[in-house]
Every structure is written in structure tokens, then in C-alpha cells.
């Protein structure tokens, strides 16, 4: 997954990081999320606070697409270890990620997810980048997600509504477009 340039807005960068890290984590034998509208609140060191919750409309096909995309990403991993004990899932992965054309960084991710993927879950994700990603050596992200009901009228699976940004960003379409440009 290529990351946007420094000129891209911080909200889009946050959404891209969330999508990339979450899809990587969720593909590693994680339970399926319940279809409908999920409200996802994130906190990430170095990002503005109080950006509000992201709303993500999903169905089983969009969840599967994220997992399929992450499976491709997983092929670039030298280590993936997922352990589940009750409602706690721990993940450790070491993966090579293309940041810009022919420029790579190794990401080492350690994550802990707790909760039920049909109603609410939390995630704490620590990622280290070697070499640094746009000057970032390490990131720490907290995620709190809760199912809030059916998707809103006019929303389609994959739609993400970000606070302070007009309109929807469709993750499913962006992933398809990104995959179509890959050799």
C-alpha cells in the first residue's frame, strides 16, 4: 500500500493509516464484523485530537475485500503470529511495505484487540518503521469501534464519512483502484 504524499490532508492520511493497519490486522484470522454502520474513534500520537469518529458502512463483501487485500499484503510478511484467547486477540507481524514507487520500509506491528466483532471492540496497535516512514520511526494507535445500526440512507458498503469533510470516501473503490494500478 503506497502512502499519500506530505501534501495530502491529515484526515486522509489518518484514514489511510487506519485502513492499512486495520485491514492488515483484520485479515489475520480475525472474526468478521457485523454488517452495518460502525463508528470508529481513533487516537494516534502526533495527530490532532478531537477529530471525531469516523463512520464506516460495511457488509460481508466489503469486509471480505479488506481481508483479500490484506492477504496480498500478508505475502510481503516474513512473520505473522495471531493468538486468540477468549475475546482477546494478539497479533505480531513483520512486513515489507512500499511507501512510494520502489521505496520500501519494514513495518513491525504488535496489536491487541479485545471485544466482540458483532457489537464493539478496541484495538491498540504499535507499529515500528525501518527505515522511518516520512520521518516516523514508530506509531501508536488506539481504536474503539462500535456497531451503531444499519448504514444510513444513500450509503453503500465501503463508504467512510470523516468528520469535517464533506461527502463520503469509499474505501472499497479506492482499494480496487489502487489494486488496478499495481503491476
List keywords for this structure.
single chain; 183 residues; alpha+beta; nine-stranded antiparallel beta sheet; disordered N terminus
Structure commentary:
With 183 residues, the protein is α+β, with helices and mostly antiparallel strands. Helix content is 24%, strand content 45%. It is built from 3 helices and 9 strands, in the order H-E-E-H-E-E-E-E-E-E-E-H. Strands 3-4-5-6-7-1-2-8-9 form a 9-stranded antiparallel β-sheet. The longest helix is centred in the N-terminal third of the chain and has 18 residues, at 10-27. The radius of gyration is 15 Å and the shape is globular.
Topology:
Blueprint: H1 10-27, E1 36-44, E2 54-58, H2 60-74, E3 77-85, E4 88-100, E5 103-116, E6 120-133, E7 136-149, E8 159-161, E9 169-170, H3 171-181
Helix pairs in contact: 1-2
What is the typical, i.e. mean, pLDDT? 76
Q: What is the 3D form?
A: globular
Number-wise, the strands total 9
Query: How would you classify the helix and strand content by structural class?
Result: alpha+beta
**Number of helices, counting only DSSP H or I runs of 4 residues or more:** 3
Let me know the largest β-sheet.
Answer: 9 strands, antiparallel
Outline:
The protein has 183 residues and is α+β, with helices and mostly antiparallel strands. It has helices at residues 10-27, 60-74, 171-181, and strands spanning 36-44, 54-58, 77-85, 88-100, 103-116, 120-133, 136-149, 159-161, 169-170.
Amino acid at each position: 500500500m503506497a502512502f499519500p504524499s506530505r501534501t495530502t490532508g491529515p484526515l486522509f492520511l489518518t484514514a489511510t493509516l487506519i485502513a492499512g493497519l486495520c485491514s492488515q490486522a483484520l485479515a489475520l484470522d480475525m472474526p468478521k464484523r457485523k454488517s452495518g454502520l460502525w463508528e470508529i474513534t481513533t487516537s494516534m500520537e502526533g495527530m490532532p485530537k478531537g477529530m471525531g469518529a469516523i463512520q464506516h458502512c460495511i457488509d460481508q463483501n466489503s469486509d471480505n475485500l479488506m481481508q483479500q487485500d490484506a492477504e496480498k499484503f500478508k505475502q510481503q510478511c516474513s512473520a505473522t503470529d495471531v493468538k486468540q484467547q477468549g475475546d482477546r486477540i494478539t497479533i505480531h507481524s513483520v512486513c515489507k511495505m512500499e511507501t512510494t514507487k520502489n521505496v520500501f520500509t519494514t513495518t513491525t506491528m504488535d496489536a491487541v484487540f479485545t471485544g466482540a466483532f458483532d457489537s464493539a471492540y478496541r484495538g491498540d496497535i504499535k507499529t515500528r518503521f525501518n527505515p522511518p516512514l516520512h520521518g516516523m520511526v514508530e506509531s501508536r494507535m488506539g481504536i474503539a469501534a462500535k456497531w451503531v445500526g444499519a448504514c444510513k440512507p444513500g450509503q453503500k458498503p465501503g463508504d467512510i464519512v470523516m468528520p469535517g469533510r464533506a461527502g463520503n470516501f469509499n474505501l472499497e473503490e479506492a482499494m480496487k483502484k489502487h489494486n488496478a494500478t499495481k503491476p
